[in-house]
């Protein structure tokens, strides 16, 4: 599969809004409206994927609602509820050398700068102050840890990230 064909999840279709086929959108982008920067959209529900065109959108209170071309009533729109919103990976902006998408970090092994294997990144959390790596500890962890929360602070805690080796090097006490 080439880079142009690889799909990423931008959000999810929520409930139907009104009777004219509008849909509520749950955006996974930092800013809700940023989901509208990535087109074309493909909607995936189960094994079915279809490319759709967004003809209109608006903000309603704190939610985003969209109008999909060819969907003009509530029943047609209901068939799309629960769909994942996908776009081509190539639509994402290029990042600087020290920036990474969360999806790139999940699955990486985490080792200390002294060579201790802390485990594997299973998730990321946003705390407001900084992002946090959720690291599932190895089964043979000498400190009997099951999980570690490590702040993603580049040059303070995170010393390096190697996409090629799928490894993050940290300045972190394994007992913490």
UniProtKB/TrEMBL annotation:
It is found in: Cytoplasm. GO terms for cellular component: cytoplasm; ribosome. InterPro entries: PRC-brl_dom (IPR027275), PRC_barrel-like_sf (IPR011033), RimM (IPR011961), RimM_N (IPR002676), RimM_N_sf (IPR036976), Transl_B-barrel_sf (IPR009000). Keywords: Chaperone, Cytoplasm, Ribosome biogenesis, rRNA processing. It comes from the Bacteria. GO terms for biological process: ribosomal small subunit biogenesis; rRNA processing. Residues 10-90 form the RimM N-terminal domain. Its main location: cytoplasm. An accessory protein needed during the final step in the assembly of 30S ribosomal subunit, possibly for assembly of the head region. Essential for efficient processing of 16S rRNA. May be needed both before and after RbfA during the maturation of 16S rRNA. It has affinity for free ribosomal 30S subunits but not for 70S ribosomes. Binds ribosomal protein uS19. NCBIfam families: 16S_RimM (TIGR02273). This is Ribosome maturation factor RimM. The lineage of its organism: Bacteria, Pseudomonadati, Pseudomonadota, Gammaproteobacteria, Alteromonadales.
């Amino acid at each position: 599969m080439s880079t142009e064909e690889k799909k990423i999840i931008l959000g999810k279709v929520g409930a139907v809004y009104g009777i004219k086929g509008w849909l509520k959108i749950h955006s996974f982008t930092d800013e809700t409206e940023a989901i509208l920067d990535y087109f074309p959209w493909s909607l995936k529900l189960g094994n079915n994927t279809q490319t759709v065109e967004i003809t209109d959108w608006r903000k309603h209170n704190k939610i985003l609602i969209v109008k999909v071309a060819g969907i003009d009533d509530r029943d047609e729109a209901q068939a799309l509820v629960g769909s994942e919103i996908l776009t081509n990976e190539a639509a994402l902006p290029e990042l600087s050398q020290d920036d990474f998408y969360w999806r790139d970090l999940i699955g990486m092994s985490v080792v200390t700068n002294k060579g201790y294997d802390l485990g594997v990144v299973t998730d990321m959390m946003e705390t407001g102050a900084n992002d946090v790596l959720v690291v599932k500890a190895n089964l043979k962890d000498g400190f009997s840890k099951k999980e570690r929360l490590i702040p993603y602070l580049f040059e303070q805690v995170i010393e390096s990230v190697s996409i090629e080796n799928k490894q993050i090097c940290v300045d972190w006490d394994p007992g913490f």
